[in-house]
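Dear H.,

Thanks for agreeing to be a second pair of eyes. The structure we're designing against is below in token form, covering all 203 positions.
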């Protein structure tokens, strides 16, 4: 049976597809649609009662939450993206929780672009932009000092946070004062595994 990841590439499952490609492991991909035919179907809700994607099934172990799935995969498969010791594990978990909160804030801002009429959008977005700019300033200082989030190398912590920052793609003003973040983000998305995963969103 092995690893099965559920979720369309144009969902948060993209983070897990990227991670699986980084790891070079075999996996099945079920590009589950939203709604009664997919995420809300009886059979899927038995797997994930939240009715959301992504979910990972690893030989009967079912995990949800895209960032937690990636931390699990890193530790299961090992390699340079994984924590090398308990200290790195703690730091990657800490950044993962920070990333999860940012994910919700960035997603809320992303939705304003889709849900709020254009003439009201800047005002609606302003509080979220301010909060996220503050967070990006913290990230900018960290990356300027350390190059990466943990261990001086690209790890699952970087992958997870880049996957969340993807929701800021319609709000480049949030990253305007953060050249180090922009370069680190672009380098992450230029990795061959990232490009292979994002190619799944096309067509
Ligand atoms: N925090 C969760 C969020 C999961 C989530 O909101 N998934 C969306 C797709 S990106 C979903 O399934 N939405 C359908 C729904 O909520 O009904 C994660 O990172 O996995």
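And this is the sequence the design step returned. I haven't edited it by hand at all.
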């Amino acid at each position: 049976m092995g690893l099965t990841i559920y979720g369309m590439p144009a969902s948060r499952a993209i983070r897990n597809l990227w991670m699986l490609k980084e790891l070079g492991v075999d996996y099945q991909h079920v590009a589950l649609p939203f709604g009664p035919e997919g995420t809300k179907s009886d059979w899927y809700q038995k797997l994930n009662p939240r009715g959301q994607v992504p979910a990972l099934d690893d030989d009967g172990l079912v995990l949800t939450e895209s960032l937690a799935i990636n931390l699990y995969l890193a530790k299961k498969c090992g390699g340079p993206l994984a924590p090398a010791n308990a200290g790195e594990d703690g730091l990657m978990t800490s950044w993962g929780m920070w990333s999860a909160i940012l994910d919700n804030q960035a997603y809320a801002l992303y939705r304003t672009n889709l849900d709020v009429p254009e003439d009201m959008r800047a005002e609606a977005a302003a509080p979220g932009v301010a909060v996220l700019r503050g967070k990006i300033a913290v990230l900018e200082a960290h990356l300027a000092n350390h190059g990466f989030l943990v261990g001086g190398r690209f790890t699952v912590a970087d992958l997870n946070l880049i996957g969340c920052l993807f929701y800021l793609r319609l709000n480049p003003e949030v990253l305007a004062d953060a050249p180090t973040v922009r370069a680190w983000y672009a380098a992450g998305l230029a990795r061959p595994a990232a490009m292979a995963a994002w190619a799944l969103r096309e067509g």
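Two observations from my side: The chain has two domains: 3-80+195-199, 86-191. DSSP finds eight helices and four strands in the chain.

Warmly,
E.
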